[in-house]
Structures are given as C-alpha cells and as structure tokens.
Amino acid sequence: MEDEVALKEKREDLIKEKMLDDAFKTAEINHGLRSSGKKQKKRVYEKTFPKLGFLLLILAVIGLVIISNVPWAYLKYPVGEGYIETSIARNFVYNETGFDITSIFQSPNYIGVTATDFTDAPNAASSGLMGLLFLGIIVIVFGLVDKLFNFSIPMFIIIHFIFGVVMIIPGLLIVLSSIKFLGVHLLIYYNGSWISTPNVVVLFPAVFVVVALGFIIIKFAFTVMRMDFNELHKLKEMEEPKQTLFRPYGGE
Length: 252
What we know:
Layout: H1 2-69, E1 73-79, E2 82-89, E3 93-94, H2 117-149, H3 153-178, H4 184-190, E4 201-203, H5 205-239
Antiparallel strand pairs: 1-2, 1-4, 2-3
Helix pairs in contact: 1-2, 1-3, 1-5, 2-3, 3-5
C-alpha cells in the first residue's frame, strides 16, 4: 500500500515537473517571438525612415520648380472684337500686350487678389517648401545616426511621430499662402459687373499644383502619425503582463 502511494506521488511529481518544463519552454518561445518581432519591426522602420526623408526632398524640389517655372495666372480678356491671352509669373511678371492688366488687380479689389499677392504667395510657399527640404535632410541624417547608436524601438517611433507633427507646419504654410487664389473664380462670378475688364477668364496653374502638394504633405503627415501611434499602442500591449491562468494554491 505504501509502495502504491509512493509511486502515485512520484508520478504526480513527474507530471508537475513536465508541466513546469513545458510552461517554461512556452515562455521562452513567446519571449523569443516577441524579441524577433521587435527586431523585425525595427528593421522595417529603419528601411522606411530614409525613404521618408527622400520623399520629402522630392516633394520640396518639385514644388520649388513649379513655383519658379509654371505661370501663377493665365488671363484671357476681350479687347475690341477679339481676345488677348497672357500669363503672369511670380512677382507679377508678364508679357506686354498693349493692355494694362494691372487694372484688373487694383482697388477696388473685386477680383480678390492684388499684384502684391503674386509676390507674397510664392515667397511664402517657397519658405514652406524650403522648410520641408530641410526637414527631409534631418530625417535622412537621423536614419544614419540610428545605425550608429541603435535607438530603442519606442524612442525610434516617438521621434518618427515628432517628425510627422513637424511636417504639418510647412504643409499648412504652403496651402494657406496660395489658397486665396482659388476664391477668385467665385468673386469673378459675383463681382463680374464691377470688374474693369468684364468677361475676363482667369486660371491659376501653379496655384492648383502648389495647393494640392500642400494637402498631400498634410495627409502624408497624418498617415505617419497614425501609423506611429498604432505601433506605440501595440508595443504597450505587448509589454503589459498577461493575467495568469492558474491561481496559486490557497489563493482566493
């Protein structure tokens, strides 16, 4: 009888040891998977981070080229029995057509923009694009610095998030500096009878592209911020201790 009791206790001890060993191995596997997942996630960020900087550089260069080379306004207005067409570059530079087009943009300003706006808006948009260019360089440099110091994943994602927040500033500056030109179309419709040159047609090629570029930058910044926020949330959940499935003996 005593031998049977001892054998039974020995079997129970072996079963407990096996359960503890299996639990320990499972914990090691889970820890390894988490660690490898973090390393994989870091490698993904390391690859995408320099790409973010190069993308900002490309967008900034495209915007600066458009501001300097694409006409800010295209005018078509009636003269006699025909029409005259001309384009206005930044700083209100245009080809002489025998008609003083400045009268269209003079006070009372029924059209909504003045000749000064053709200087102020491109300068402000250029400042925003130069800021974006500078930010792109910083992002690329940070990617190189991370390879030397190997920042932790949370720190890396937080810095990535901060760059996304800063990216909004030049995007807003680009949009706000030029968006007033888009309201000209409505003002021409409502104030057409008071404009010195009736039936004038005005288009803003550079403005459409610059404003669209600004919105793209803002949208991209919010996408980066949302992605980083989700990654930080996942890391927080992974670090939280899981509730044990077994209560200790005698526990409530």
